[in-house]
Amino acid sequence: MPAISVVMPLYKPKIKYLEKSLKSLVNQTFDDYEILILYDMCNIKAWDNVVKAVIEKYKDMKLIRFFTSKRRLGFVKSLNLGIKLSKAKFIARADYDDLYDKRRLELQFETIKNSNNQKKKICVVGSWGLVIDERDNIIGQWITPITPSQIKKYLAFHTPFIHSSVLLNRQEVINAGLYSESYYGSEDYELWIRLIYSNKCLGYNIPKFLVYYRLTNQSLMRPRNIPTIRVALKLTNLLRMPLRDVLLRRSLNVHNSLPMKLLEYIKKKSKGKTIEEFI
């Protein structure tokens, strides 16, 4: 039984990105892991065949379990299926278009394992990231909060983790109810809220650049509006904070993703009311 399962959902991947990502994953300094790939087939025979050929190529280098679905499951269902299929204690998230430092799994495993001796264990470990473009050029840095206390404060207004950088305690994620399909586009943010505000889990980010997060036109266009509003509403209940205060924080995703007219409407209508009063 491996210590870590790397879970990677796939749908219509760009082959050149998939190859680079897999190459960075099979060359990790940590040995005790498998890669679970969950492929929603696009039913374009040539495309599906190329994806299968790439997976087969890397199967000789690392234990890769490849699952296909002719019916479109979607990103969140595929994630949850991968977690259920895993027999490892820890789940590492990976996206096919991102790249990973060779010491990523080693450093994250050491961090999460060493926390077992503490009263409250770390169950989410992420890292900092370098932002790359479609040609692998570094175009920026993604610096996340580091300590559990910093993460808990930051979580009230923004996701404190790069999703494709995290290592998760599998059982804690299952106990929390897995990723919610109701928050597509913000499913990771909503899960962190449940895990960390339950006071059962701590989060930590290794202050090293262990993921190369690829910024593409697709990543910029991912639908986040309505799920992000719903996450904001959930936070107002957890923190007993007026909805307007949550929405007006500059660091919240809502500011960057909501249509301006909708944001203005929410500001106008809430007028400092609590969520119960607003609804």
Which structural category do the helix and sheet elements fall into? Answer: alpha/beta
Shape: globular
Low-confidence region ranges: 247-263, 273-279
Count all strands and give the number.
9
Question: How large, in whole angstroms, is the Cα Rg?
Answer: 19 Å
Biggest sheet features: 9 strands, mixed
Strand content: 15-25%
Q: What does the average pLDDT come to?
A: 82
Count of alpha and pi helical runs: 13
Q: Give the terminus-to-terminus CA distance.
A: 49 Å
Helix content: 40-55%
The helix-strand sequence is: EHEHEHEEHEEHEHHEHHHHHH
Molecular structure report:
This protein has 13 helices and 9 strands. The chain has helices spanning 15-26, 45-59, 75-85, 104-114, 148-154, 170-176, 187-197, 217-220, 225-239, 243-248, 253-257, 260-270, 275-278, and strands at 4-11, 33-40, 64-69, 90-93, 99-100, 122-132, 138-142, 167-169, 202-214. Helix 1 runs parallel beside helix 2 (45-59) and helix 7 (187-197) runs parallel beside helix 9 (225-239). The model is unreliable at 247-263 and 273-279 (pLDDT under 50).
Question: Would you kindly provide a brief summary of this structure?
Answer:
The protein has 279 residues and is an alpha/beta fold.
List the helices and strands and how they pair.
Layout: E1 4-11, H1 15-26, E2 33-40, H2 45-59, E3 64-69, H3 75-85, E4 90-93, E5 99-100, H4 104-114, E6 122-132, E7 138-142, H5 148-154, E8 167-169, H6 170-176, H7 187-197, E9 202-214, H8 217-220, H9 225-239, H10 243-248, H11 253-257, H12 260-270, H13 275-278
Parallel strand pairs: 1-2, 1-4, 2-3, 6-9
Antiparallel strand pairs: 4-8, 5-9, 6-7, 6-8
Helix pairs in contact: 1-2, 7-9
